[in-house]
Predict the 3D structure of the following.
Amino acid sequence: MPKRVSRRLEELRKKVEDRPYDPEEGLQLLKETATAKFPEAAEAHIRLGIDPKYTDQQLRTTVALPKGTGQTIKIAVIAKGEKVNEALDAGADLAGSEELIEEISMGMMDFDRLIATPDVMPQVAKLGRLLGPRGLMPSPKGGTVTFDLAQAIDEFKAGKLEFRADRTGIVHVMFGKASFPVEDLLTNLKALQDCIDRNRPSGAKGPYWRSIFVSATMGPSIEIEVNALRELKLTAAA
């Protein structure tokens, strides 16, 4: 049975024209359509010309959002010996070794990001079936397998995000809060676009960017003009 659209969303959709918007205009509209009773995130949904079933067309990387995410990130670290104390001193919310692995295996998921040192990854790998579906499995490409715990913790606390293209070649990623000024949202969106271009898979063929839509968490989709975003020059997003 089709899910019924709320009257609120129906009214908001009337504000959105069936055309690509200039980035700044589209982000202003995103803010105007963020009318839910809670602080909404700003989301980007980007269709790329890739087929992730091929290994040379997969996209998984991280982006450091210059204006942050607007979220408080809870970080857990799995490490050994003095690295556990190093993680706690650097601002990790949870840190441990075998005992933390055991807690997670029992269902404890009270964190937003999991970082691990390379020497504990054989043990962490056993948690793959629990962590993988939640997007929490540490990986070198995601910057979450490292001995430099202080830098990794600082970066993720400051607004670094890991993202990947799904099996249909679409990237879904939050790039801030709808309450951010338009200029800050634009800076973050531009940083995301630059990151996706820098990490273009070697096997991608034909047009790389197909479309980009933005929305508030509970708002309507707003198409952004791809070329206008890619050609935009922002010093703050460099």
Summary: The chain is about 30% helix and 20% strand. Residues 182-198 form the longest helix (17 residues). The longest strand covers residues 41-48. The chain has two domains: 7-69+160-237, 75-158.
